[in-house]
Amino acid sequence: MATNLTFHPGSVDHHERVDLLQQSGITIWFTGLSASGKSTIACALEQHLLHLHKFTYRLDGDNIRYGLNKDLGFDERSRNENIRRIGEVSRLFTDAACITLTAFISPYRADRALARKIHEEAGLNFMEVFVDAPLAVVEQRDPKGLYKKARLGEIKEFTGISAPYEPPLDAELHIKTAECDVEEAVRIIIGYLLEKGYIF
Ligand SMILES: Nc1ncnc2c1ncn2[C@@H]1O[C@H](COP(=O)(O)OP(=O)(O)OP(=O)(O)O)[C@@H](O)[C@H]1O
Ligand SMILES: [Mg+2]
């Protein structure tokens, strides 16, 4: 941790910003196995929210690993750091009053708890969406061919096969994608955002 730092607050605080922009920020944290549908649902939700003229942005696993996190691998420490950085970036977006969608496997409970804590400590909204489908289903979908490679041992530390996934115990929403389609998932999330007053 660097020393001699002083936080420089803006002239407009978060609540004023929300008032002026007429939009409150929230981080919607999608977690689940690869191919469970995180990116698919986040993309559809992003499109829907943009059509409602909501300032929305999606931070998506592979995309972030092309840039900000290109120095990180998939061992446990790198995954921790990957999620820590996303937690911090999503906090900044949400502080800017953005509806921030994050789509990362984020397999460890402690990492997701840290992302939540980063937001809560800053007084910012955060919710977790468990995008859930059985391993047999996601392995059958395998849109990127990753499960096949993992089974052949060509990918080490693959979540669900050779690395753990710790399902959420306290997610705000639990969406079972083997039982509902993408449109239904978007409807469920929008309904929740409206009910809780996160969008208005
Ligand atoms: N109800 C559903 N919701 C979302 N995706 C579904 C659903 N039913 C089938 N699919 C399909 O499952 C696949 C999900 O892939 P997607 O890339 O969204 O997963 P992901 O969770 O983002 O995985 P990764 O962690 O590898 O990025 C897509 O091919 C999608 O079309
Ligand atoms: Mg994805």
TrEMBL record:
Membrane-traversing stretches: none
Pathway of action: Sulfur metabolism; hydrogen sulfide biosynthesis; sulfite from sulfate: step 2/3
Record GO biological process: cysteine biosynthetic process; sulfate assimilation
Enzyme class: transferase
Signal peptide (UniProt feature, chain positions): none
Catalytic activity: adenosine 5'-phosphosulfate + ATP = 3'-phosphoadenylyl sulfate + ADP + H(+)
CDD domains: APSK
Gene3D superfamilies on file: P-loop containing nucleotide triphosphate hydrolases (3.40.50.300)
EC numbers for this chain: 2.7.1.25
InterPro entries: APS, APS_kinase_dom, P-loop_NTPase
Keywords from the UniProt entry: Amino-acid biosynthesis, ATP-binding, Cysteine biosynthesis, Kinase, Nucleotide-binding, Transferase
Residue ranges of domain APS kinase in the record: 25-176
Gene Ontology MF annotations: adenylylsulfate kinase activity; ATP binding
Function: Catalyzes the synthesis of activated sulfate.
Annotated family: Belongs to the APS kinase family.
Descriptive protein name: Adenylyl-sulfate kinase
